[in-house]
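User: Fold this, then the next.

Assistant: Folding the first:
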Amino acid sequence: MSAVRRVRALIVDDSAIARDLLERGLSLDPGIEVVGKASDAYSARDKIVFLKPDVVTLDVEMPKMDGLAFLRKLMPQYPLPVIVVSAVTAEGSRKALEALEAGAFDIVAKPSAYDAFGLKAMVAELAEKVKAAGRTEPGKIRPLAGGLARPSPSAGRPAHDRRFRGRPVGKVIALGASTGGTVALSKVVTALPADSPPVLIVQHMPPVFTRMFAESMDRQSAVRVKEAEDGEELERGTALVAPGDLHLTVVRSGRRLEARLDDGPKVSGHRPSVDALFLSAAEAVGPDAVAALLTGMGRDGADGMLALRRSGARCVAQDEPSSVVFGMPREAWENGSAETLVPIELMAREIMARVGARAAGRA
């Protein structure tokens, strides 16, 4: 029996120290072979042509040509899976989100240079994403039309309709995603109507990135999109995104439904965790919840969705052809919690139909 082929990775970073650290860390994984390193975009292009890596790790802030510009030139010619390794700063986060829009596979946040534990955790996370990217079918990762992270002029922003705020909540929509989720969530949230039931979102993403991601979707959505705040009331026409490194859950307080944030232990290996959100929704919302589990590595959300389904909630998952990584949706399908698999282009319509179907049935 032949050995499993290792994923061939190329490291692109202008820092020699970062290149060496990533090479040593990734080379410890028996499933990865680091075939080369490059200090800038021009060297990277030559090495991609000659070394033919399966996956590229890319720093977005580099001299000569930054990683974002390089990615936009690379994808039409060599549509390789690219994992962005970015500093957790406002500028680094903005560029990383634009890189996802341009077709990057995923992002990993650089820790502080003095955080040895953070560095070890980052390399472990990067290794898992490199292996997942190496198994991704060509053509799965496509640029997002419409400009997810690009600032838009104020005149082009939707006028969020405040008439729906303060009305009875009724239903609650819960969404969970990981790898490929920024593009998938953007397609769903921007298609929701202004009077949508409140939406709660968990996307596996570091701090700062989540705030900018929420602001990006807000610029294009009929619903108001923002990072969740602890204790705020759920309102129609508003979508709340879990802040990076904090769990988002929902609780019932009298007649109100409120968002709760906490920095408790990771659930299913993540903080924020989709399972944490879904389990809380099963308890606080039950049959008035509609949940969707979107593209992502691993199985976070599958157990929580099963609890939701048992509570009477309506549950769907993204189908394999439209998922960048059919991990989390597959787990929900296989454990029987997802009622059906839905292409991402039809997901918003499916969610609203189930919101309407439940309301019509009760009426």
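Now the next one, as you asked:
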Amino acid sequence: MDTAGAVSTGAITPAHGAALDDTPLLVWLAFAVASGTGLLGSALLFKASGHAKQVFALSAICAAGYYVWVYMISGTGADRPTEELYIAAVVIGVTLGFCILSRRVA
């Protein structure tokens, strides 16, 4: 994301842009793994594969790691929009729900 462009157009605040720019690569990697494994877990759940629960568990762990860094470790949670906190709760809740569902399906 071009944070400077987003800040200049008013799409995000300067503090939010700085928080995004200061996010370490490892945290972005956790976000990417959480997203990818969530998608893979959904496909495995659709196929009723027994591996879906492990994939969803990995997704939940990576997503939790990302959100713990954002809201607890980095100290930038207040610089981010309030909606992101709601999204975090939904992402973790849905992923854990799919993890439980995949235990029953497979």
